[in-house]
């Protein structure tokens, strides 16, 4: 059987320009992070480093437990675990006493369930965005820790969100490597309800969840689509987005769903270079 011959980028572009019937290809371009991107990508455009992003594919289904009372928070935690969650984030206003921690974890098998207590008043516990992630990188560079965990927020832009998460991991791995630490890191993604239309928010939750998982999130938390004023039904719907992506789409069984996409790899490279430059500028001040 005769194999297909390789087609160069120049040959593909000639075909594309013919199909456009005189319309210039660059009229379809758009800008991301100050750089121009085209709708056409070829393996010749792949970054030289390949952006090999090492991450665990089997992410943790997380649930945020806002503190109201010990009894109610514990009840919410047990409900989440029964619904498929395997990571509990207890948000607490200030420090928490050991006895309170013990009471919150009543009935929870802590040897197999991952959990964390977050002091909402602590600066380092916030979720970082594209605009301020350099601040976390600076902290990690100044006080390097093995296996750092960072919480991030993403936007409605599907491909940009994928690339952003991949880029942050690359930057963290580089910082740890320079300090002689293992390059492992843990990225948690928090998807919050930002739209007043609950039905539209459910759609956004799904697309953002896919972007987070494909981008390599290690922990994913999806807030109920009506925010703090939630219900058992809304909490179940939010959890089931992840259950479906795991048990029906099998996204946890793919080594790197974004690998081989020349556009995503180029976009990752752009985000990584921009974030790294901003981080270096911040450190030099």
TrEMBL record:
Which SUPFAM superfamilies does the entry mention? Cobalamin (vitamin B12)-dependent enzymes (SSF51703)
Q: Where is the signal peptide?
A: none
| One function term, GO molecular function aspect | cobalamin binding
According to the entry, every stretch annotated as the Methylmalonyl-CoA mutase alpha/beta chain catalytic domain falls at 128-282
Please give the superkingdom of this protein's source.
Bacteria
Q: What is this protein called?
A: Methylmalonyl-CoA mutase
The record's listing under Pfam families reads: MM_CoA_mutase (PF01642)
Q: Which InterPro entries match?
A: Cbl-dep_enz_cat (IPR016176), MeMalonylCoA_mutase_a/b_cat (IPR006099)
> Per the UniProt entry, what species is this protein from, by scientific name?
Neolewinella agarilytica
Q: Which intervals of the chain form a coiled coil?
A: none
């Amino acid at each position: 059987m005769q194999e297909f011959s390789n087609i160069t980028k120049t040959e593909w572009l000639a075909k594309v320009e013919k199909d456009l019937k005189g319309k210039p290809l660059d009229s379809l371009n758009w800008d991301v992070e100050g750089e121009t991107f085209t709708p056409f990508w070829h393996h010749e455009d792949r970054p030289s480093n390949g952006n090999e992003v090492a991450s665990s594919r089997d992410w943790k289904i997380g649930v945020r437990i806002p503190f109201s009372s010990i009894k109610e928070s514990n009840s919410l935690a047990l409900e989440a675990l029964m619904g498929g969650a395997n990571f509990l984030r207890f948000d607490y206003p200030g420090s928490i006493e050991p006895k309170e921690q013990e009471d919150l974890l009543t009935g929870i098998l802590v040897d197999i369930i991952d959990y964390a207590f977050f002091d909402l008043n602590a600066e380092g516990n916030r979720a970082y965005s594209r605009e301020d992630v350099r601040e976390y990188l600076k902290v990690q560079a100044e006080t390097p820790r093995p296996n750092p965990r960072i919480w991030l927020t993403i936007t409605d832009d599907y491909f940009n969100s994928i690339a952003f998460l991949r880029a942050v991991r690359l930057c963290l791995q580089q910082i740890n490597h320079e300090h002689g630490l293992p390059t492992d890191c843990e990225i948690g993604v928090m998807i919050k309800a930002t739209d007043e239309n609950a039905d539209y928010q459910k759609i956004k939750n799904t697309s953002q969840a896919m972007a987070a998982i494909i981008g390599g999130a290690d922990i994913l938390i999806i807030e109920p689509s009506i925010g703090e004023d939630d219900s058992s039904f809304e909490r179940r719907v939010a959890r089931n987005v992840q259950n479906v992506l795991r048990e029906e789409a099998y996204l946890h069984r793919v080594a790197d769903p974004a690998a081989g996409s020349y556009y995503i790899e180029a976009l990752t490279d752009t985000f990584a270079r921009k974030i790294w430059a901003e981080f270096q500028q911040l450190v030099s001040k």
